[in-house]
Amino acid sequence: MSVAKALTIAGSDSGGGAGIQADLKTFQELGAYGMSVITAITAQNTTGVHGVYPVQKQGIKDQLDAIGKDLPPQALKTGMLGSAEVIETIAEKIAHYQWPHVVVDPVMVAKGGAKLLQADAVQAIMDHLLPVATVVTPNIPEAEVLANMSITSLEDRKRAAEQIASYGVEVVIIKGGHDDSATAIDLIYTNGQFEQLEGKRYSTNNTHGTGCTFSAAITAQLAKGSSITEAVKVAKQFIELAIKEDLHIGSGHGPTNHWAYRKAYV
Ligand SMILES: Nc1ncnc2c1ncn2[C@@H]1O[C@H](COP(=O)(O)OP(=O)(O)OP(=O)(O)O)[C@@H](O)[C@H]1O
Ligand SMILES: Cc1ncc(CO)c(N)n1
Fold first, then answer.
1. Active site residues
2. How far away, in angstroms, is 138 Cα from ligand 2 center?
3. Closest Cα partner for 245 from 255, 235, 236, 232?
C-alpha cells in the first residue's frame, strides 16, 4: 500500500486551533500521514498570541533534512515562517529535495492582530517561495500586501491574483473570509482563468485557524493524488463544515471543528 505523506512547515499554536496543530489534525482526518517542521513556538489561545519563540535556523534545517533524507512528502504546505532568512532556507530545501505540490499559506497576522511575519520577509516570499510553489492561498489583507494594492471589489481581487501569479506560482486562491459579502467566495486563478468557489457564510466568532485548515486540506488531497481543482473543492467542504459545526471552546476566537467533515462524509 502506498501511503500519502503530507508535510507542514509552520508555527506551533499551543491552543490547537491553528498552525501545526490544525494542519496535522486536518491531514489525519483526510487520511494523509502528517509530518511537521516547526518554525516557531507560539504561546497562544483563543484570546490571542501571548508569546512567540522562533526556532533557530539550524533547527529548521535539520528538521527539513530529517524529512528529506527519509520521508519524502508527496505534498507540503507552509504557514507561519517568521523571517526572510527562514523563508530562504525553506525555499532552498524544497528545490534541493525537489518536493512536489507546494502550498503556501502566506501567514502574516493572527486574527487578534499579532504579527507572525517580519515586514521584510514579504519580499522573500515573493522572491524565493512563490517561484517554487504550486498554490498560494492569501486572505484579502495578505493579497493586498503581496500585490501592493488595495482590494475593495471582486475586480480588484482578480487584478491582485494576476499580479501574485506573476511571481511564478501556478494557482492563486484569494480567500473570502475577510470579505463582507453574504456568501464566502474564494477566487481561484489558474493559467489566465478565474473560477469562484462559493459557500455559505456562517456568523460565528469561531474562525481561528480557518486559513491553516483550508490550506492543509488542499495539501492532504494533493498528497493523496487529487488534481488541484478537486483538492480545492474538498478543502472548501472541509472548512465549511468545520466552521458550521464549531466547538464553542475558549472565551475568544475559538477553533473550528476538525472532525466535522469525517462525521459527514467518512
Ligand atoms: N464565516 C465564514 N463562513 C464560511 N466560510 C468562511 C467563513 N470565514 C472564512 N471562511 C472560509 O474559510 C477559508 C479560510 O478563509 P479566511 O479568509 O478566513 O482565511 P484566513 O484569514 O487566512 O484564516 P486564519 O488567518 O484565521 O487562519 C476560506 O475558504 C473562506 O471562504
Ligand atoms: C502558529 C500560527 N500559525 C498561523 C496562525 C494564523 O491563523 C496562527 N494564529 N498561529
1. 175, 207, 209-212
2. 13
3. 255
